Amino acid sequence: QQQQQQQPAPQQLAAALAQADAVGKTRILGETIYPLVVKTYPHRAGKITGMLLEKEVEDLVPLLDDLPALEALMKEAYDVLQAAQK
Length: 86
Known about the structure:
By secondary structure, the protein is mainly alpha-helical. It has helices at residues 10-19, 22-40, 45-52, 57-60, 67-85. Helix 1 packs antiparallel against helix 2 (22-40), helix 2 packs across helix 3 and helix 3 (45-52) packs across helix 5.
């Protein structure tokens, strides 16, 4: 029996981010974004998550409430990885 990792509620996420230092914010966002990335790009989820985390925290947080925009950013990162392999 697999136990799914639950996403924190937006209020909990905002509170955690407000209290965290820069490294903590990156970790929290990574832990939040990774499960979303792995659904679409399971073999590249770590790399794509890392690429997304290179963006500013202030740019990433709104994307957590805008799934189409986050998915577009994930696809953009995936396309960059694919182009780099050619």
